[in-house]
Amino acid sequence: MKKITTILGAITLSLGLAACSSSSVNNENATIGEKVDYEIIGIDPGAGLMKATSQAISDYELSDWKLVEGSSAAMTAALKKAYNKEEPIIVTGWTPHWMFAAYDLKYLEDPKGSFGEDENIHSIARNGLKEDMPEAYKVLDNFHWTTEDMGVVMMDIYDGESPEKAAESWVKENADKVSEWTEGVDSVDGDKIKIGYVAWDSEIASTNVIGKVLTDLGYDVTLSQVEAGPMWTGVADGSLDAHIAGWLPITHEDYASKFEGKFEDLGPNLEGTKLGLVVPSYMDIDSIEDLKE
């Protein structure tokens, strides 16, 4: 009987907590913090976006708030679940990203500048790549596209296409743009090249596109998904030939500084990215400062 009583008590407590949480979500008088359990849904802990979010929590004195670590996939899954129910949620976000096309979202204003200014995504090559693989180097050096270009590939992947198929379709439909990247580049015969990338939707899109272009030129391409640290380390120590996922000057600032002189920055391949806290547009909140209420 005691065991049954204990179990019933646990169930009652669980149901009580769930009811309390549900009550906070639906209570119009509850604060934003109460409605989302003072949680900001983040991504992988090594991401620069997470570091910036932690800085924002400090800058805005949000001592009651918790940054939840996870992954890009877990974050978007939580966003989708909340959005479909029109429930409040706060996530770490960045553009370009397909979620801004799939959902009506907005960035919270950042008057203290915790997330910095807009960034660019850079192509990063290992030292010596120009001499070892001059044709691949030219392609990486020429590679440049827009947020709209990237958005097409990301949405195709979101809609169910494999990254490889989505990249293949984009390359086929944008032959004129690809020809600018490959102008004056000769084909090769099975030369091996290894490119790293982080599991951000934006980098999955861009890396698969550049991988397809290099494959069409005759390269034996290996795309390696790793965390940001190993990605930069790999280029610095030569185990990776390149990556096209360098978010600078803020997100990957620590890695760029740590490995200064051990890689070659080929410059931006996409301009005008943005980082910050993102909420559905139906939420009555406009600034990070509002989270203190």
Account of the protein in words:
The chain has 293 residues and is α/β, with parallel strands linked by helices. It folds into two domains: 2-117 and 276-292, D-Maltodextrin-Binding Protein, domain 2, CATH 3.40.190; 119-273, Roll (Dipeptide-binding Protein, domain 3), CATH 3.10.105. It is built from 13 helices and nine strands. The protein has helices at 2-26, 32-35, 48-59, 72-84, 99-102, 129-132, 134-142, 147-158, 163-173, 175-181, 201-216, 228-237, 253-258, and strands at 39-41, 66-68, 91-95, 105-107, 119-126, 192-197, 220-225, 242-248, 263-280. β6 (192-197), α11 (201-216) and β7 form a beta-alpha-beta unit. It is elongated, with a radius of gyration of 22 Å. Mean pLDDT is 91; it is low at 1-21. Residues 31-173, 191-292 form the ABC-type glycine betaine transport system substrate-binding domain. Keywords: Cell membrane, Membrane, Signal, Transport. Residues 1-18 form the signal peptide.
Oligomer category:
single chain
The counted number of beta strands is 9
Total domains? 2
Let me know the average pLDDT: 91
- CATH topology of the largest domain: the name is Dipeptide-binding Protein, domain 3
Amount of helix: 40-55%
What is the terminal separation in angstroms? Answer: 46 Å
Spell out the helices and strands N to C: HHEHEHEHEEHHHHHEHEHEHE
- CA-based gyration radius: 22 Å
